[in-house]
UniProtKB/TrEMBL annotation:
Protein name: Cell division protein FtsI/penicillin-binding protein 2
Domain (Penicillin-binding protein dimerisation) ranges: 68-310
Similarity comment: Belongs to the transpeptidase family.
Topology within the bilayer: Single-pass membrane protein
Residue ranges occupied by any Penicillin-binding protein transpeptidase domain in the UniProt entry: 358-676
Pfam families tied to this protein: PBP_dimer, Transpeptidase
Keyword line: Cell cycle, Cell division, Cell membrane, Cell shape, Cell wall biogenesis/degradation, Membrane, Peptidoglycan synthesis, Transmembrane, Transmembrane helix
Presence of the UniProt keyword Zinc-finger in the record: no
Cell compartments where the protein resides: Cell membrane; Membrane
Ranges annotated as spanning the membrane: 21-44
Single Gene Ontology BP annotation: cell division
Length: 725
């Protein structure tokens, strides 16, 4: 019997209610689990990861911005300013991360009404892009649908397609259309291009040259104007040299910024694209010292990328100062000596090739370079003769130095057992098969025999004595009119020995791009004899100065340097800052000779100045101080492509010396390449410059010393060389 209908409905309801309760329990339990997971996750994020996310937020909202500090200054050995920073008014622009090009253009238009900006740096590409921005629709219509379709069909990336399309638009802009850009619009463009040249939140220099007080004031008054958002007025610096001495180096300007070939190098070291960097010589060599530590501020931005607060983080430090070993007064006086002699030589006969002259003076005991003079004759735009500074040529240009190297040859002979102390050789003209006669200048008659000691060989500058040393080193025996075979290893023996003096190798000076000179090879054999008298390999004037310094201080080769101190920036602007680094004397090596052998060469060099046959007796015999040295003459050929006198025979002259003889304070080298094309009338300008330079050193040394030596002094010279000019 079936249950009544009401009972069946009641059972169904009970069953449904039971299922509903079960499902609701499952739902509530699931919700409970989800909330539990959510609470656990929030707790994990808040407690475990909270600090990490806070730092991440800080990184995205607080953006570091580096601002420049004054570059370190350069002083001479007496505290005279050589390179300084001059403050100038400047106007900058800083774009936000969300700043659009249209907004920047609006600011540029407004700024153009307040300042004057030259458009000489505006390029054709700048004009084309500016025209497109001003005439977007009409410029785009210049490219046909067919041309657009052809580019779209190419198998290249989308960015490459866009670049090709943009290039096609630029090509179709006519000269007439570009000429329609008004002078006022060009000024806006000149400002706009500076604004767009850098990164967001990195200040860009809009104008820092010839900013008038009126321009500075007008912009300063309107810094809160929304139409000048991002514009600021600041104090910038210009690099000013009080000397045209080229080894001081040069820097880029904010307009030129970091050189393209070193962009990655400097950007990796937190430089900005428009930072000044050293590009040559001391400014380049000591870039990390001079640059200083930038001040750092953080621009706190809101969610839209707008700066809401600027927070100082690090005040930064001005660049450190360099104190040179060069006395600018001595440098200036020696430059006058070289300039006057160079002009005098150029006015003389057979002097068409002479254009350079060098004088390097250093302390042989410490390696400090006291003066580095290089002068080159040239012409200005009107064809008038001018003299340019060419001091860097003293370590980048090399020449045959003639008999000045004979001290190294004799000492090599001693160390290699090719000659003994006081050994006498016969000076006689030598004749080898296939070559011209080789002889000393004072003995040209074949079969004329003159006994010659080692000391006399230096005094009289005997070529033959040096030839015989070279042949003994090579194990070669002289026979009249026979060939001369020399093993290539003999050249290595000579050159390795010369390198102990600094000849043919880098001196180690603290300046970039030093040359080593030219090695002439290992054949034919007779060239070994030329090497022995300085007429084969080439050396720089600085190498010559290091060589004579090595002999002067009893065989120790010192590393030359032009910076003697690194100091912190001045605290009061009146006295030099505290010393941070003193450049200590550095011995590179000692030559492989006994003291007796070095004394023998020193005696020979002393006789060059005072001996009856000394080649510099006329200039030095009456000197009020004791000195020693060696003169040099080299027969050379002038080579310069497309020059009318290419291949012309000429004469180089050189001179090395030191004083005082017993306790040397200075060593000096003089070099004048291609001084004449007449070998019968060789001027003695090398000796005259050497004597005048030594006289000037001792004259200035005897002046009363300045008791306030730590005070910053005015430049000795009136010359002014401004950055970028």
């Amino acid at each position: 019997m079936k249950p009544p209908q009401k009972r069946r409905v009641s059972l169904a309801r009970v069953k449904l209610q039971s299922n509903t309760v079960f499902r609701m329990n499952i739902l509530f339990f699931t919700i409970f689990l989800l909330f539990s997971v959510l609470i656990l996750r929030l707790g994990f994020l808040q407690i475990v990861k909270g600090e990490d996310y806070a730092r991440a937020i800080a990184r995205t909202e607080e953006v570091p911005v580096n601002t420049s500090v004054p570059r370190g200054r350069i002083f001479d050995s007496e505290g005279r300013i050589q390179v300084d920073n001059t403050p100038v008014n400047a106007i900058t622009y800083t774009a936000m991360q969300t700043t659009k090009r249209e907004e920047m253009l609006t600011v540029a238009k407004e700024l153009a009404t307040l300042i004057e900006k030259d458009d000489d740096k505006v390029t054709l590409r700048d004009k084309q892009d500016f025209y497109i921005q001003l005439n977007t629709e009409s410029a785009s219509e210049k490219v046909t649908d067919e041309e657009k379709a052809a580019i779209a069909a190419e198998d290249i990336t989308e960015p490459e397609k866009q670049r090709k399309l943009d290039a096609l638009v630029r090509e179709k802009i006519t000269d007439e259309e570009l000429a329609s850009i008004s002078a006022e619009e060009l000024e806006v463009l000149a400002i706009y291009r500076e604004m767009t040249s850098g990164y967001a939140l990195a200040p860009q220099m809009i104008k820092n040259e010839d900013v008038t007080d009126e321009e500075f004031a007008r912009v300063s008054e309107r810094l809160t104007d929304p139409n000048l958002k991002g514009v600021n007025t600041v104090t910038d610096w210009k690099r000013v040299k009080s000397s045209d001495l080229t080894i001081l180096g040069s820097t880029t300007t904010p307009e030129t910024g970091i050189p393209a070939n070193k962009l990655d190098y400097y950007l990796a070291r937190d430089y900005s694209r428009n930072d000044r960097v050293g590009t040559s010589f001391l400014e380049q060599q000591y870039e990390e010292v001079l640059q200083g530590q930038k001040s750092v501020v953080k621009n706190v931005t809101d969610g839209k990328g707008s700066v809401i607060e600027t927070v100082p983080v690090d005040e930064g430090q001005a660049g450190k100062d360099l104190v040179l070993s060069i006395d600018s007064e001595l440098q200036s006086e020696l430059e006058k000596i070289v300039e006057d002699k160079l002009i005098q030589l150029k006015a003389g006969p057979s002097s068409k090739l002479v254009k350079d002259a060098y004088l390097v003076m250093m302390d042989p005991q410490t390696g400090e370079v006291l003066s580095m003079v290089g002068k080159r004759l040239g012409e200005d735009e009107d064809g008038k003769q001018v003299i340019n500074d060419y001091a860097f040529g003293s370590f980048t240009a090399s020449h045959e130095m003639g008999s000045t190297v004979k001290g190294a040859t004799l000492l090599t002979g001693y160390s290699e057992g090719a000659v003994e102390l006081d050994e006498v050789q016969i000076d006689e003209p030598l004749k080898f098969a296939g070559t011209a006669q080789k002889n000393s200048i004072f003995n040209t008659q074949l079969f004329n025999r003159i006994p010659m000691s080692d000391v006399m060989a230096i005094e009289r500058s005997s070529n033959v004595y040096m030839f015989k040393i070279a042949m003994e080193i090579a194990g070669a025996e002289y026979q009249y009119n026979r060939g001369l075979y020399v093993a290539p290893e003999s050249f290595d023996v000579m050159r390795n020995s010369f390198a102990q003096f600094g000849l043919g190798v880098k001196t180690g000076i603290d300046l970039p791009n030093e040359a080593t000179g030219y090695l002439g090879g290992t054949s034919p054999g007779a060239k070994l004899l030329d090497l022995a008298i300085g007429q084969f390999d080439t050396y720089t004037p600085l190498q010559l100065a290091q060589y004579i310094s090595t002999i002067a201080n009893d065989g120790y080769r010192m590393e030359p340097h032009v910076v003697k101190e690194i100091r912190a920036a001045s605290r009061d602007g009146e006295s030099l800052g505290p010393i941070e680094t003193i450049v200590e004397p550095k011995i590179l090596n000692r030559i492989n000779n006994t003291q007796e052998e070095i004394d023998q060469v020193q005696t020979g060099m002393r006789n060059v100045y005072i001996g009856s046959s000394g080649s510099a007796r006329a200039q030095f015999s009456d000197a009020p101080y004791t000195a020693a040295g060696k003169t040099g003459t080299a027969e050379v050929y002038f080579y310069e492509k497309d020059h009318e006198m290419n291949g012309q025979y000429a004469i180089n002259i050189a001179h090395v010396g030191y004083a005082p003889y017993d306790n040397p304070e200075i060593a000096y080298a003089v070099v004048i390449p291609y001084v004449t094309t007449d070998p019968e009338n060789v001027p003695r300008a090398n000796n005259e410059i050497a004597r005048a330079a030594a006289d000037k050193y001792f004259e200035l040394k005897n002046k009363e010393a300045d008791s306030a030596s730590n005070l910053i002094k005015e430049p000795y010279s009136d010359s002014i060389v401004v950055e970028g000019e």
